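Quick start: what a row looks like.
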Amino acid sequence: MKFHLRYVILSFCVFFFLSGCSWNAINEKELDQFIESENLDYVSIQKLNDEEYYIFSLPYIYIYRSASDYTKSTAMIRDEIAMGGLEKGSIGLVINNTQVLKDAKTFSVVIDSKTREYEYTGGKYLIIKDSRIWNPTAQLKIIFSNDKNETIFESDY
């Protein structure tokens, strides 16, 4: 009887732990309802982590946590690259610059005169994750380079 009771209690603990892990996870239905309520067109949804998504719908970029907890920012556009959704540790880009889409192989993020380089795979929607973003205000430079390490786009934000 003692063993059976322990097994039942352990099973309940495991069940509650596992179900608690998914309580904060955002599901597709919630995202669809939010997009409908905001009347968004031409939407791209990119996952940042289990609790946050980037929703791109120009001229806005959203950081979505829930229907009552989201951030909406107007994208700053420079040479057909929109930047917005600034969040501590991340920023969202919508890339419509054909030269960047076609030729860029890397992008660099420069903050406080320190550069970090990342591979670029040609996506139109890009989330840059860098713990230095927002220190305490965004002052960064983004540089896209081709395979010869030539700069094809550079802008301060």
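That is the whole record. The helical segments are 2-23, 28-38, 98-103. The longest strand covers residues 60-66.
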